[in-house]
Amino acid sequence: MSEQGPPRTPDPRGHSPHPRRFPSALYAVGAEPDARDSLANERTMLAWVRTSLGLLVSGIGLQAIGLPMPAELRFIAAVILIVAGIATAIRAWIGWFRSEQALRRNVPLPGSLFSVVLTVLVAAAGAVTLVGLFLG
């Protein structure tokens, strides 16, 4: 962790030297981590959000373009992708929060099995789509 700068002096107008941050419960514990680590954690969260958007758009697009396959299978594949997109967005926030807590407490970063779950969901959507294309 890098060295902390000199303590901030109170603002003469009465404003707090530490701006209010959300979620406040997270920032109330531990020490301020190196900014590079926090920014890397935020970039990781944003990458998960981009992934969730891609999954959501894929599910919507699959249903909208009407591939020549049974409608039931297309719907199932689309729902799997949309559910995966929603779960990934939620995981982005939870993962960011848990990693930021670990950084602030100077403990090892938490592990996650979500990548395995996401891989299974995407593979399932792909398999359903493939079967549907063969049947269509």
Describe this structure in a few short sentences.
This protein is mainly α and 136 residues long. It is built from 4 helices and no strands. The radius of gyration is 21 Å and the shape is elongated.
Helix content: 55-70%
Spans of at least 5 consecutive residues whose pLDDT stays below 50 are: none
Shape from CA axes? elongated
Number of helices: 4
Q: What is the first-to-last residue Cα distance?
A: 58 Å
Helix- and strand-based class? mainly alpha
Measured by DSSP, the beta-strand proportion falls in under 5%
Oligomer: single chain
* Helix-strand sequence: HHHH
Largest sheet: none
Task: Output the radius of gyration.
Answer: 21 Å
Q: How many strands in all? A: 0
Question: Mean pLDDT across all residues, rounded?
Answer: 89
Polypeptide structure, described:
The chain is mainly α and 136 residues long. Helix 3 (71-105) packs antiparallel against helix 4. It has a domain at 35-106 and 113-135. The chain contains four helices and no strands. The mean pLDDT is 89. The protein has helices at 24-27, 35-65, 71-105, 114-135.
